[in-house]
UniProtKB/TrEMBL annotation:
InterPro entries: Diverse_substrate_MTase, Methyltransf_11, SAM-dependent_MTases_sf. One of its GO terms (biological process) is methylation. This is Methyltransferase type 11. It comes from Puia dinghuensis. The keyword Methyltransferase applies.
Amino acid sequence: MKLSYISRMTLNQKSLLNLEFGREAFGADPAGYHAARPAYPDWVFETLRDRCGLRQHTSTFEIGAGTGTATRQLLDFGASPLIAIEPNEHLANFLRATIPDEALSVSIAPFEDVVLQEGGFDLGFSATAFHWLNEDLALVKVARLLRPGGWWAMVWNVFGDPNRADPFHEATKALLDGAASPAEGIGNLPFALDVEARLAALDRTNAFDVVEHKTSAWSIVLDPAQTVALYATYSNINARSDREAVLAELGHIARIQFNGRVTRNMITSLYIARHRMAS
């Protein structure tokens, strides 16, 4: 596995979906969402173990747990107790039904509203969800919840890589033109890969004394049905009134133009930050 750093790119303004939309965008079909979205690479959780002390009895909160793709991996690595914070009732119920682990509790609330013990956690975590929050306000709350020396980690699986050709993206760009998820960031730089902005936000809290960033590049290969299932989980598609027609056209392009084989480039981007030790 090759780890690399992503350089900052030129930014241009684009229309973004309202942050509130993210709380309802993914709950229509939790099982379908869970089946379609790829898991996070093992190295993410190995980093949490080796650098952030994730082990048995690590008190953890997870923001935007969704269907629990990362939740399961946190539990496997020892997170306990683990409070999964998920504002969408359908996703939260899916979590409860599919992860029968006594270490897990699920809080159905936006992170802004949830009440947790300040200074009560060894680890805070968010997987492909933090872009749906007000970054500065959320990071201040994250810092309050962590013990001195505790760790904050946020990770994204990014669909697309600015450093690699992406024929399917180019072939469907006009079809998908419209309001974008905040995950797409501004211009051509996804939120998760805007390292300068993410590090600056962490620095503005004045709460973290060690900050690190790692990425890895990989790919997934999809048949037409898998392609449609994946794109059906995208917030910018779920926001469209012509959603079904767009998904049908994506399947047609995958079958005809790509002979039933679509390769999507992926980047996993992980940020970790240690809460300042008590003086």
